[in-house]
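new request in #modeling-help
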Amino acid sequence: MKLFPLVFANLRRHKLRTVLTILGVALATFLFASLRSVVTTLNQGAEVASASRMVVTHKTAIVFPLPMSYKERLATVKGVEAVTWANWFGGTYGDGKTFFAQYAVDPDTWFAMYPEVGVPPDQFEAFKNERTAALVGKGLMEVFGWHVGQDVTIRGSIYPGDWTFTIRGVYTPTVRAFDDRSFMFHYDYLYEHTDHRAIPGWFVLRLSDPSLAPQVAQTVDDMFQNSSDPTKTGTEKAFNQGFITMWGNVRFLMNSIGMAVVFAILMVTANAMMMTARERTGEVAVLKTIGFTDRTLFGLVMGEASVITLTGAVLGLGGAKLLYGGGGVTMNGMLPGFDVTAGTLVLGFVIAAVLALASGIVPALRAARLSIVQALRHVE
Amino acid sequence: MALVEIRNVHKSFQRDTQTVEVFEGLTLDFAANSFTALMGPSGSGKSTLLNLIAGLDRPTSGTITVAGAAVSGLSPSGLAAWRARHVGFVFQSYNLLPVLTAAQNVELPLLLTRLSKKERDERVRIALGIVGLEDRMQHYPRQLSGGQEQRVAIARAIVSDPTLILLDEPTGQLDKKSAEEVLTLLQRLNAEMKKTIIMVTHDAHAAERAQQVLHIDKGVLAR
């Protein structure tokens, strides 16, 4: 503890260098936290899926719809407790470039299937009773500053034309990672307005027992195997992860970039520490002459490296947590619940500690092993 | 009674493929409470002898005993602890740490002790008072003159109340007036505080202030 002032005094020697190195570490840990949070948020999105729900899509691709007649047949499968369906609308808002998720759903069955969607009862009733009503996520309401009762016009791309809806309800997810930026409206409205052309994009099944999932998937897919619209049935988690893989190998990419950034900053920090140690060869010799042991000097140099990297980590990781913690950043609605997890923070600090060790070890060993007489010969 | 006993010390350096013999069986005593000036031409071995006595370097063979402790036989960490307790070293170019104030520089040896902050501060104040710089405690080295810097270095050397004060050309970079002040201070430390002082110098005038002058030439003592 007595030696801390000496560590801090040394850090003040080249204030600009110290500040720039700390900012470098801060930026690296901030980027690491941001990139890793993309991965953890994607994973969280998959994890939030209920084990008792399964999703039935077209075998070829999710963009192909399924006949409504499947609803009754799916309900007969052993282990299936309830069936609902939805349709991806894919429209744009405002200037024609603003996009958010819009689904046509069956109010009677959809919300019973998703208890994660929390809606005040009066608003839910109002939504159910009006064919052109919409139910909107709280996050999306905040983004556009909408209010209940407001008319919102969406330009359809899959279903062309201007579609005007009246917001009758606002939902708040009861689970943090659940999307709060979706726009839901009546399937019946879509069906009628498209001259009965719109049919379900996918079905969702609720199982009486999650352990029945493999059998249910097999039964459903066998049932429609020889039809014109064969199905692919999987757990909701697999369905959500399927969306993630549509992004490509995001996990690998994000982790690779994150580690590359950390490695780059390791080089910068190590270089700064080496420069600092070289400049102070004479001073190290003087301290040894006074009676400082090799071990103490090793600790002093490591202390400096630790203060630099840990301060940078506090700034970088703390900054990321502050920025993303409010839930305001969702990457244009694609990553609801985007946040820095405790695991990412711990990993960030572990990386910072490794960074301190890796950047400080060589100059610290040099200081510890320095020959007093030879070093003084350079100074005197 | 001898405080420092040097017995049959050999010291050689390896320079490229050549072995350079500095001392070949040097035997010498320094009495307690003495003030000795070591003189001699460059390369004669004065500074090497000072480094050996301070435990900064080790003899190739032979023994060096200071106040009963066989310095040449101590481990590196034991030697560091011994230096902290028994040796005050003053360099020609002061060697104060530029990022620390005068008081913080003087406090450095005390950071290795178990003294409390209050006790350390008190000792620093006394040491700087002895060298006449009590009013410069919060000044950084760049804010001091050369003479003042050297006096801070002497305060650093005496703050832990060492047995032995070793000085390597302490007036080498000072003007005449500052050199006189430093030499007067050393005489006071020797006379009033009974410190044993060994000073390497080229300056005959500085050597005159010592109680005895030893001449070394090519590693051999010439009284």
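bot summary: The first helix of chain B runs from residue 46 to 54.
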